[in-house]
Write a sequence for this structure.
């Protein structure tokens, strides 16, 4: 089959690879019909995630058609159209029993801090991902969800990660009616977080980024007030001024390890890799939120450490809430939001690219060329 | 694939303490004081740490396991098992816990070595990697010609300058070398 093949930082191609097979009685093999490139795939692409091995296939956002199921999978059959949550979760361990499906303890030998994730390095379990014609799906009797007949597959593929992650960012923020919510990052997750903030009753939604075309898009999509931080002398002072000197009720970090905006953080985190990427968005979030406020983190960081003003977290009495999205938990609610029109995920898709052109797609997404927001990959066999 | 299913129990020191002996135990407990609401469902949280384990996937490749794991998780990926020098570095890294910087720095180092091994592997299979294509240069040409020309220009200038400096230094040392050889 044709599959993405990682060759090193900034280098990927599509090669012939062996077909995935059933390796566990709860496995399925899924024929991929759509997969996306996620902003967090760029951390792998840029060589920032430890234990990213040459030869691995990335891709944790995909949907497709069940090709084959293992003997313990009774709720799916060949031919079912499914969306596959990015978390690999057993559904029965200590953490899954509590709905923490992003924290499964039975899916990742290489690390305990994170559960298994499709195509996301060996630090997340060493699974090949869905940027391929076929993918092995472990715990197929628990994770994959049958796509309703009425649902557009473009919406379905976005429900595997970006929509739940954006929604959970707003949910974890504990937004109360009338709250001012600031979202750092106008990438796909930030866009969905801003849109979701309204569903929780936000009174005002502000999005901060430095890429104008994305700010213009989210201004209408969310909708939201938007500001380019490169046009501001000091982001934190601006936030204080625009909130009567108090700060926002809630700040959401939807950027993670590759934030732009601080030369010091860029050198230490992105160039020298002495910290887990640049944490300037989180730094701004902590300093922009009001005393007693909430900082919600869904931006992805590496496993070592980051330079953030933890003293201000203490002195301001902040609550920090963070996790990988628990996709399976959120899916019933999100499917309903899409059905009634509260969410229109497919609007963020900007590029449809054949799988064979994946190197171009990564480069366009990484370098923000051609006003790229969200690229979808289409395997030729689909 | 093994059919074994094992119910696990983690040790819990708190169970050795009789709460009835602790004056005031639980008097200020408040179920609403839950910073993990609503994403953590505590209704089945019995603090036992027990669960019916899924069927164990049998490893048929070399697998590196975090020393923080009590047992091998029931399923795992089988992509790209460790091999070569990078594999040795990864094996070494897994002696340390996820809390230790040596673990992660060695893994990042192994990733860079693995990149070189990948090129060697390609050449060994008579495949010359098309690096510009792998790096998306065609897309850069389509969407950002000026930027690409600038990048190529800057790279050529840096390489040219370094080469010129190296050659000049080499030329300057030639008489010294000749004198040293013919005193």
């Amino acid at each position: 089959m044709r599959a993405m093949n990682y060759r090193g930082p900034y280098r990927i191609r599509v090669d012939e690879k062996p077909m995935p097979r059933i390796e566990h009685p709860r496995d399925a093999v899924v024929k991929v019909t759509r997969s996306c490139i996620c902003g967090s795939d760029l951390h792998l692409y840029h060589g920032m995630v430890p234990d990213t091995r040459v030869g691995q296939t990335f891709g944790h956002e995909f949907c497709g058609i069940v090709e084959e199921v293992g003997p313990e999978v009774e709720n799916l059959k060949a031919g079912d159209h499914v969306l596959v949550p990015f978390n690999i979760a057993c559904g029965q361990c200590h953490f899954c029993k509590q709905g923490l499906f992003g924290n499964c303890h039975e899916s990742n030998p290489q690390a305990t801090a994170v559960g298994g994730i499709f195509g996301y390095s060996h630090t997340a379990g060493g699974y090949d991902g869905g940027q391929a014609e076929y993918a092995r799906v472990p715990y197929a009797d628990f994770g994959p969800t049958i796509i309703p007949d009425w649902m557009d597959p473009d919406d379905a593929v976005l429900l595997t990660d970006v929509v739940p992650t954006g929604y959970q960012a707003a949910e974890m923020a504990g937004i109360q009616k009338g709250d001012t919510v600031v979202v750092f990052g106008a990438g796909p997750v930030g866009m969905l977080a801003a849109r979701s903030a309204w569903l929780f009753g936000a009174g005002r939604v502000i999005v901060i980024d430095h890429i104008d075309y994305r700010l213009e898009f989210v201004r209408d999509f969310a909708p939201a007030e938007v500001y380019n931080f490169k046009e501001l002398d000091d982001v934190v002072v601006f936030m204080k001024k625009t909130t009567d000197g108090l700060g926002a009720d809630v700040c959401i970090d939807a950027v993670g390890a590759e934030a732009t905006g601080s030369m010091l953080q860029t050198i230490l985190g992105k160039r020298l890799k002495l910290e887990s990427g640049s944490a300037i968005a989180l730094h701004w979030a902590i300093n922009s939120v009001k005393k007693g406020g909430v900082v919600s983190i869904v931006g992805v960081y590496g496993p070592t450490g980051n330079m953030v003003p933890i003293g201000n977290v203490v002195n301001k009495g902040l609550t920090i809430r963070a996790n990988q999205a628990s996709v399976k938990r959120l899916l019933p609610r999100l499917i309903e939001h899409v059905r009634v029109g509260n969410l229109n995920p497919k609007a963020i898709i900007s590029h449809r690219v054949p799988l064979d052109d994946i190197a171009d797609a990564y480069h366009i997404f990484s370098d923000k060329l051609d006003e790229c927001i969200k690229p979808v990959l289409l395997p030729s066999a689909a | 694939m093994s059919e074994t299913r094992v119910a696990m129990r983690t040790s819990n020191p708190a169970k050795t303490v009789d709460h009835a002996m602790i004056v005031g135990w639980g008097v200020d407990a408040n179920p609403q004081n839950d910073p993990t609401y609503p994403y953590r469902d505590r209704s089945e949280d019995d603090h036992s740490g027990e669960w019916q384990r899924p069927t164990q996937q049998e490893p048929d490749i070399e697998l590196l396991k975090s020393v923080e794991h009590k047992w091998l998780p029931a399923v795992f990926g089988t992509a790209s098992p460790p091999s070569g020098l990078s594999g040795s570095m990864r094996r070494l890294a897994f002696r340390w816990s996820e809390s230790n910087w040596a673990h992660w720095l060695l893994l990042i180092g192994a990733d860079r070595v693995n990149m070189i091994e990948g090129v060697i592997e390609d050449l060994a299979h008579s495949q010359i990697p098309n690096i510009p294509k792998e790096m998306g240069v065609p897309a850069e040409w389509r969407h950002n010609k000026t930027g690409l020309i600038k990048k190529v220009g800057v790279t050529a200038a840096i390489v040219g300058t370094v080469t010129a400096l190296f050659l000049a230094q080499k030329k300057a040392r030639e008489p010294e070398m000749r004198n040293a050889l013919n005193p």
Summary: Chain A has a mean pLDDT of 96. The first helix of chain A runs from residue 41 to 45. Chain A touches chain B through 71 residues (CB under 8 Å).
